[in-house]
Specification:
Blueprint: H1 2-34, E1 40-46, H2 47-62, H3 65-95, E2 106-113, H4 121-134, E3 140-147, H5 152-167, E4 171-181, H6 183-188, E5 193-196, E6 201-203, H7 215-220, H8 245-269, H9 275-278, E7 283-285, H10 286-292, E8 297-298, H11 301-308, E9 313-321, H12 325-349
Parallel strand pairs: 2-3, 2-9, 3-4, 4-5, 4-6, 5-8
Antiparallel strand pairs: 1-9, 6-7
Helix pairs in contact: 4-5
Length: about 350
């Protein structure tokens, strides 16, 4: 009898856990469903206000109260005069029927931290579309770029998204604080100006493809591998079959063709660059890249933003895509794998310090 009672209690506990788990899934699904067809939303952050707030916080600790009071009074007076002049400017523009040039120019700030498959391009395209919808003649765009490159077609699309800004005659500056290599440099070369930190990694204009081959292992264990294709070069190198010299030659030819396209793309955007000198697959630090003509200026994104805050409105644009619970879990695993792969590449190809 005691056994049946204990067994019944055990089943009740299991049932409670299962019901609780199902309830959590229902709640999560309901929360995801509330958003309807909306996949994400645009965030706009006023970096000018943030910069001004930082200055005020520091000033509060640097000056005594009488000086702060006099300083605030002077700033309020200047702000009042500025607003008065602004109203007159808007009034005049309104009479002329053209309000498009009655505001101060803006700098739109974007961030692109690229993964191997450049999946971040889905957000980049939304951000660029939003900017193109409101940007005017004197506006500019700053992209803070950080990526070691990845899949050719994915970074080709990312570069094409940046080219939309150029087609709209918007000045584009790309800032590299850490790394813009391979596909990252493909994106960077689209810009009117490339600014790099002194020790940022730039370049790596080359193409690489590698895969293991298990043919000998399968043969040793009497395992046959069959592959049926239509078209002589539908598949060149394979992971499980025996690779021929002809297949290797064809695959090498494809890699060389891709490299040629890569070089032509860079030459089209930076014609003064000695492409044969830099398209060796090597990478360089910022100061070296400046000497080679890969970049235009040494500096950081913080320098650029601080300068821009003096004479224009600086707005950070972010498209935040809503993710389901399963996507978040997969995303965390994928980012961890990317980080581990990049770490291995870094240890094998770049000096550590």
């Amino acid at each position: 009898m005691d056994f049946l009672i204990n067994y019944g209690l055990f089943l009740a506990k299991i049932a409670t856990v299962v019901i609780a788990f199902i309830a959590i899934l229902i709640v999560v699904k309901g929360l995801n469903g509330r958003h309807g067809g909306q996949k994400g939303e645009l965030e706009v952050i006023d970096l000018t206000d943030h910069h001004q707030h930082t200055k005020e916080q520091v000033a509060a600790h640097l000056f005594d109260k009488p000086l702060l009071k006099a300083r605030d009074k002077a700033e309020k007076k200047a702000e009042k005069e500025k607003n008065k002049a602004r109203k007159e400017e808007i009034k005049k523009a309104s009479k002329q029927g053209d309000l498009s040039h009655s505001r101060e120019p803006r700098l739109f700030v974007l961030d692109f931290h690229g993964s191997i498959d450049a999946r971040e391009v889905s957000s980049l395209r939304e951000e660029i579309t939003a900017i193109l919808a409101v940007a005017e003649k004197d506006d500019e765009v700053l992209l803070r770029l950080e990526t070691g490159g990845g899949m050719v077609h994915a970074y080709g699309l990312a570069s094409s998204q940046l080219d939309r800004l150029k087609q709209a005659d918007l000045k584009l500056t790309i800032s590299v604080d850490k790394v813009a290599a391979s596909g990252g440099y493909m994106m960077a070369c689209v810009a009117d100006k490339i600014v790099s930190a002194p020790f940022a990694i730039v370049g790596s204009i080359g193409v690489i493809a590698q895969l293991p081959n298990f043919h000998k292992l399968l043969k040793k264990n009497d395992i046959e591998f069959e592959q049926i294709t239509a078209g002589e070069f539908k598949r060149t190198l394979t992971m499980f079959g025996e690779n021929s010299d002809k297949a290797r030659e064809k695959f090498q030819h494809e890699i060389e063709e891709t490299h040629s396209l890569f070089k032509n793309f860079i030459t089209a955007h930076r014609p003064s660059l000695d492409i044969e000198k830099v398209a060796t697959g090597e990478h360089w630090f910022g100061q070296q890249a400046l000497d080679l003509g890969l970049i235009d200026e040494i500096g950081t994104s913080d320098d650029l933003i601080m300068r821009a805050c003096q004479d224009r409105s600086v707005l950070q644009i972010r498209y935040v895509r809503r993710k389901k619970l399963t996507e978040k879990l997969v995303g965390v695993s994928s980012e961890a794998a990317d980080a581990l792969l990049l770490k291995w590449i870094s240890r094998g190809q770049r000096p550590m310090m």
